Automatic annotation (TrEMBL):
It comes from the Eukaryota. Residues 34-112 form the Spindle assembly abnormal protein 6 N-terminal domain. InterPro entries: SAS-6_N, SAS-6_N_sf. Pfam families: SAS-6_N. Residues 315-338 are annotated as: Disordered. It comes from Nematocida ausubeli (strain ATCC PRA-371 / ERTm2). Residues 128-295 form a coiled coil. Keywords: Coiled coil. This is Spindle assembly abnormal protein 6 N-terminal domain-containing protein.
Amino acid sequence: MDEVLFSGPLSVQKNSSTAEYICELAKKPEFFELKLYNQATFTIMLSKLNESEYYTIKETQSIRVNYMSFIATLSELLKRVQRKELFIEVGSTIKIIERNTFRNILHLELPLKNLTESEYKMYISEILSKLNRKTSALERENSILKEELMSARRANDDMTQRYREELEKLESTTNRSRREAGDLEMKVNSLKKITDESALEIDRLKKENRILEDDLKKANDIIKRNFEDLKGRIKSETLLKEETRNYKQEKEDIEAINSRLEMEVMEKNEEIKILKELEEERAEAINNLKIMNKSLNRKLESTYRIYNRIYKKHDETEEDSKTEETTSSLIAPESIQY
C-alpha cells in the first residue's frame, strides 16, 4: 500500500526559470517515488529509487543514514523547500540546494527517470483523475456556497425589511424622545440641585470617613499591641506550665524522699524504743546492784565489827576507817560493768 509522506506545491527552478510544481513523495513496497508535475503544461518529472539504488547514491554522495531514515529525511528537506529555506533545481537530475552568501551547498541529488509514453499517459491519467476528484469536490462546495449565498441574500432582504420597519419605529420613538427630553431637562436641573447637595454631603462623609480611618488605624495599633501582649502572655503561660511540670516532678521526688525519711524515722523510733527499754533494764539492774551493794556493805561492816571486837580491840578507830575505805574501794557502783 502506498504511503504519501509529502504532498504540496513547490517552487522549482528549471532552465533559468522558476515555476510552481505539485510535489508528491510516496513510499511504495519496493521503492520510493518523488514526482513533480506542472498542471499548466502537464510536465512530469519523476525520480524512483529502490533500496539497492539508494545505497549506490549513498556511497557517491556520502550520505550517512540508512534507507528508511533517508525517506523521512527527504520529506523534511521538501518541507524546508516549501518554507523557502532550501531550493530545488532540475536539469538532468533533481538537486536540493542550500544557498548562502558564499556558495550553493548541495544537500542531495536524485536521478530523473525518462518516462515512456505509456508511463506518461498513466501518470497523466492519475493526475487528471485527481483533478477530476478535486473538481467534483469544488463543484459540490460551489453548489453548497451558492445555496448559502441564496439563503444569505434572503436573510439580507428580511433584515433590510425589518431594518426599514425598525427605522420607522425609531423615527416615531425619536419624536417621542424629543418631547421626553424637555421633561428630562427639567428633571436634570432638579437633579443638579440634588447633586450639589449630595456633593456637600459627600464632602461631609469623606471627612467622617477620614476620621473613621484614623480611628481604625489607632484601633489596629491597639490590636497589634494587644496581640503582642497576648503572645507574651502565651509564652509566659507556656514557661509557667513547664515550670509547673518541673515543680510537680520535684514535688513527687520530695514526696518519695519524705516517704523514705518517714520510714527511716519509724525505724529510728523503733530503735529508740528498744534503747529506752534497754536503758530501763540497765537502770533497774543498776538499782538492783546498788541495793545488793548496800546489803553487802552492811554485811561487811557487821563482819568487820565482829572481827574487830574479837581480834583487834585496840585499833578500833583505825580499823573502822580502813574498813570503810576498803569497802568503798572494793564495791563501788561506778566500777560495775553492765
